[in-house]
Design a protein that fits this description.
Number of helices: 11
Helix content: 55-70%
Strand content: 5-15%
Number of domains: 1
Distance between the termini: 12 Å
């Protein structure tokens, strides 16, 4: 599915109560790398501010892990609620995770067998991201409780002198836990890079508006370019200002976005959108085509439909029927 960027095979099994997920849960290698980067950055302070190192371990360990678990549970719950999905695996990585399921894809090229549509795709994508709202409120309430209801000092900066005291340590811990949820919500909703939720929210919304598949892919690619530039500027600012997330991690996210830009661009210009793990899903290929404000005439709409089929790898047989061109590899699909 995502082997070209974050191979799912690079993951370790996690023992998780089946009453919560009911499906195998794994931790991706990127989660370990993220922890190593953050912990290494805290080591220079281990003698002068040891509680700071403890803060990093707790934040980037159990708190981040619990956060992405709840995030993926949101996807899983919604997928099973509206599609009755059989989920195969849940893999966790620093920006959330991805859930292997068949609800929005089919193993045979039978349009009638498709379970979900574009609206279902949006619901499942939102279900994971929206879990960060109650989690953020929970950590904010914990901050207010430990400070006797006084939230005037709430900030997202890690002041080492404040962390030196026990109350300052927990105050900073709850502040940073809020920041983690805000960042994960922001990245997942507003960065349309697969497998982040924003890629499905943006593309499914465009397709519901009647935009052709190839045009939706081009718009997604263009937005990704703009977002990557903004993230790169943020990473530089993080180095200088030291706000929450480290500049090193943000640069890694920029490289991830750039790699997805390249993969999406290659799929567009090569006419291989069906081989892309997002745009090749059956809920996109077999969607209802409807007029929209982006198609000003019947002729323009027919041109879009032809380009759509060509981008999806469809071919026309001698009888005039449209068939799917064979692909070189089988593609897995994810619902979160």
């Amino acid at each position: 599915m995502m082997d070209s960027i974050i191979p799912a095979s690079y993951s370790l099994p996690l023992r998780c109560p089946r009453i919560i997920f009911g499906t195998p849960v794994k931790i991706h290698l990127t989660m370990v790398v993220f922890f190593a980067i953050e912990f290494s950055a805290s080591l220079p302070f281990i003698t002068t501010f040891p509680l700071y190192c403890v803060l990093v371990v707790v934040l980037c360990g159990p708190i981040l892990l619990a956060t992405v678990l709840v995030h993926e549970w949101g996807h899983l719950w919604m997928s099973r609620r509206i599609l009755g999905d059989d989920v195969h695996d849940v893999v966790l990585w620093p920006l959330g995770g991805y859930t292997f399921c068949d609800g929005l894809s089919i193993s045979t090229e039978d349009e009638a067998a498709t379970k979900g549509d574009l609206k279902d795709d949006i619901k499942i994508a939102l279900a994971g991201s929206l879990t960060h709202v109650p989690m953020c409120l929970f950590w904010f309430a914990m901050y207010a409780a430990i400070n006797n209801g006084d939230v005037s000092g709430f900030t997202f900066r890690r002041y080492l002198t404040v962390i030196s005291s026990l109350q300052g340590f927990f105050s900073t811990l709850f502040e940073q836990a809020c920041l983690i949820n805000i960042l994960l919500f922001w990245f997942n909703v507003f960065v349309p890079a697969y497998p982040l939720d924003g890629s499905r929210l943006m593309t499914s919304s465009l397709l519901l508006m009647g935009v052709a598949l190839n045009k939706a892919a081009l718009l997604t690619w263009f937005v990704l370019i703009l977002v990557s530039i903004a993230l790169f500027a943020w990473s530089i600012a993080s180095f200088v200002d030291g706000v929450g997330i480290t500049g090193i991690l943000c640069i890694l996210i920029v490289f991830f976005v750039w790699s997805e830009c390249y993969r999406l661009y290659s799929s567009i210009v090569g006419g291989r959108l069906r081989e892309h793990p997002l745009f090749g899903r059956d809920c996109y290929i077999y969607r209802d085509v409807r007029p929209s404000m982006f198609q000003l005439s019947t002729a323009a709409r027919r041109m879009d439909e032809t380009a759509d089929r060509n981008s999806s790898g469809e071919e026309q047989d001698q009888s005039g029927n449209m068939t799917m061109a064979p692909t070189e590899t089988d593609i897995d699909h994810s619902c979160g």
